[in-house]
Amino acid sequence: MEPGRLTPVEETSLLTVYARALDFDRPHPILGDEVARRVVDQVDYDFAGLGVLGSTERFVALRAKMLDDRIGAFVARHPDAVIVDLGAGLSSAASRVGPPSTVDWYSVDLPRVIALRNAVLQERASSHCIAASLADGRWVEAIPSGRPTFVVADGLFAFLTESSFRAVVDGIAEHFHSGVLAFYDYGRVSRLSRLPGRLPSKKRMARLLADAWAFDGFTDPRHLEGWNPRLRLIEDASALHEPEIAAFPSTWRMAARMSRRMPAIARKARVLMYAFGDADL
């Protein structure tokens, strides 16, 4: 299928699904997402031209696994849960987690991405797609608010402005009665560090990310608690401390060792989780 003309933010959905497909192709994958490989095979797009690095491929797979594990643990405690995947793109997380039919799974993304998703992915019976911009706060109205809710965002928030990010967080904390917000975070990312991606290159990945990136990030994970009093930090987990790092190139294994003594390195690749409401989560 031809994906049509996509904006840089929309195109990142192709980058991540391709990285997960490359991970699946490895003899010993981290995530093992067979659906990602089938999706890539269906889409008429120059994936190889993205120039996805081996380390990028592994990090995309590892962060998805970290988030999948946390969703699975939440569902085990709350078999009537609602899962909300923000910026879902072409993710097959629902298939990977395999929740019971009592769990409703909502995938939220921009209309053109959802149209592509509907064309290449077969959704489970209790899955729902919401085609909307997160800048329009009304997207949350389509999702039930009274059940335990796990809201997940895999790398999405870097592509929102700070004001939009804050509005999304406020909308989540105020709409849902209780639950968890979990997302992959890059720590503080300077604009200067993104400049090389804007230079001419045969590899589109760096340019794509530089064009899509909109938020400088934050260092202290408790920063979001200052945005909304209903949020409380419950986990700050660095991907560099996961056992799968042993399969990464030597430079990243060295960075992982250094991150034990230098927290600034660990913050560059982390999953943050915040609880809201007063339910037993």
| Number of separate domains | 1
Supply the CATH architecture: 3-Layer(aba) Sandwich
What amount of the residues lies in strands? 5-15%
* Number of E strands: 7
Residue stretches low in confidence (pLDDT < 50, at least 5 long) are 194-202
Helicity, as a percent range: 25-40%
Distance between the termini: 41 Å
Write the layout of secondary structure elements.
Elements: H1 8-25, H2 34-42, H3 54-77, E1 82-86, H4 93-97, E2 104-109, H5 111-120, E3 127-131, E4 149-153, H6 162-175, E5 179-185, H7 191-194, H8 204-212, E6 232-238, H9 250-259, H10 263-266, E7 270-276
Parallel strand pairs: 1-2, 1-4, 2-3, 4-5
Antiparallel strand pairs: 5-7, 6-7
Keywords: Methyltransferase, Transferase
Pfam families: LCM
Organism: Mycolicibacterium sediminis
Describe this structure in words.
This is Putative O-methyltransferase Omt. One of its GO terms (biological process) is methylation. By secondary structure, the chain is α/β, with parallel strands linked by helices. It has one domain: Vaccinia Virus protein VP39 (Rossmann fold). Helices cover 38% and strands 15% of the residues. It is built from ten helices and seven strands. The chain has a seven-stranded mixed beta sheet with strand order 3-2-1-4-5-7-6, covered by helices on one side. The chain starts with 7 loop residues before the first helix and ends in a 5-residue tail after the last strand.
Produce a short descriptive summary:
The chain is an alpha/beta fold.
Supply database-style keywords.
seven-stranded mixed beta sheet, alpha/beta, methyltransferase activity, 281 residues, Rossmann fold, transferase, 38% helix, globular, Putative O-methyltransferase Omt, TcmP-like
